[in-house]
């Protein structure tokens, strides 16, 4: 098991373009989280999946953002019509889903730069 | 709402102890966590403490929890240059659907100098 994998590591795009990121969680982890981290800040919660069900979306996730986890394994996060304010590190984390102790294991993140 | 606050910067000499402090707001948090982030990397779970504990020790790491004051600290003994990183405090907060999510502080940048 190689841990949580994210692809790509870096993405540079022009304003208005669409981008998609992929996250492969640790196998058999049924919980998957997306967080966003801007410079000098801690990770901010975006959304969460229990298996294939998206159970919560933060107010930070505007209509331009969509996340999926179609088969309960890997997940994708798409940003449409990117804006400069979307520039951030997008972090994916997974958890085995033990009820009381939510230990999250993070990937290395996708660094998005919108020009 | 939930909020986690940390001091932003700490500088220590190699070999000294480092103490990173954190305050949180959700008194119902059952677990509190410390994560470490090195440049260009994701977050690595260092340790965690259950809310009914006052202290937890794990090798060079000691976590102290004052639940009354909602204060958490991380002590790193014999700090090494490899400990230079950003340290995040996080509290477990309830989410929808019966799960828990983590709320992070802004992080404390630890700089270790010779």
Largest interface: A-B, 29 and 28 residues
Computed structural class of chain B: mainly beta
Assembly category = heterodimer
User: How many β strands of chain A by DSSP?
Assistant: 11
Main beta sheet strand tally, sense and closure of chain A: 7 strands, mixed
Give the strand content of chain A.
Answer: over 45%
Topology:
The complex is a heterodimer of chains A (115) and B (114).
Chain A: E1 5-7, E2 10-13, E3 19-24, E4 31-37, E5 44-50, E6 53-57, E7 65-68, E8 75-79, E9 88-95, E10 105-106, E11 110-114
Parallel strand pairs in A: 2-11
Antiparallel strand pairs in A: 1-3, 3-8, 4-5, 4-9, 5-6, 7-8, 9-10, 9-11
Chain B: E1 4-6, E2 9-13, E3 18-24, E4 31-37, E5 43-50, E6 55-58, E7 61-66, E8 71-76, E9 85-94, E10 100-104, E11 108-113
Parallel strand pairs in B: 2-11
Antiparallel strand pairs in B: 1-3, 3-8, 4-5, 4-9, 6-7, 7-8, 9-10, 9-11
Features:
heterodimer; A: 115 residues; mainly beta; seven-stranded mixed β-sheet; four-stranded antiparallel β-sheet; 0% helix; B: 114 residues; five-stranded antiparallel β-sheet
Describe this structure in words.
The complex is a heterodimer of chains A (115) and B (114). Chain A has 115 residues and is mainly β. Chain A is 0% helix and 49% strand. Chain A has no helices and eleven strands. Chain A has strands spanning 5-7, 10-13, 19-24, 31-37, 44-50, 53-57, 65-68, 75-79, 88-95, 105-106, 110-114. In chain A, strands 2, 4, 5, 6, 9, 10 and 11 form a seven-stranded mixed β-sheet that branches. Chain A starts with a strand and ends with a strand. The model of chain A has no long low-confidence stretch (mean pLDDT 92). Chain B has strands at residues 4-6, 9-13, 18-24, 31-37, 43-50, 55-58, 61-66, 71-76, 85-94, 100-104, 108-113. The radius of gyration of chain B is 14 Å and the shape is globular. The mean pLDDT of chain B is 91.
């Amino acid at each position: 098991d190689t841990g949580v994998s994210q692809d790509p590591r870096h993405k540079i795009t022009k304003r208005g373009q669409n981008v998609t990121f992929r996250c492969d969680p640790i196998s058999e982890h049924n919980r998957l989280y997306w967080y966003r981290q801007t410079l000098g800040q801690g990770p901010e919660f975006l959304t969460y999946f229990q298996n294939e069900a998206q159970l919560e979306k933060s107010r930070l996730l505007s209509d331009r953002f969509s996340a999926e986890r179609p088969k309960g394994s890997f997940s994708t996060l798409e940003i449409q019509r990117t804006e400069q304010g979307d520039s951030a590190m997008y972090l994916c984390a997974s958890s085995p889903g033990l009820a009381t102790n939510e230990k999250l294991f993070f990937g290395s993140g996708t660094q998005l730069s919108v020009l | 709402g939930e909020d986690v606050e940390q001091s932003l910067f700490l500088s220590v000499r190699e070999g000294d102890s480092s103490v990173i402090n954190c305050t949180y707001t959700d008194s119902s948090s059952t677990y509190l966590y410390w994560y470490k982030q090195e440049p260009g990397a994701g977050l690595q779970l260092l340790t965690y403490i259950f809310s009914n504990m006052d202290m937890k020790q794990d090798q060079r790491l000691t976590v102290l929890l004052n639940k009354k004051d909602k204060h958490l600290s991380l002590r790193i003994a014999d700090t090494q240059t490899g400990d230079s990183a950003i340290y995040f405090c996080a509290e477990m907060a309830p989410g929808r659907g019966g799960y828990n999510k983590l709320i992070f502080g802004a992080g404390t940048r630890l700089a270790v100098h010779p």
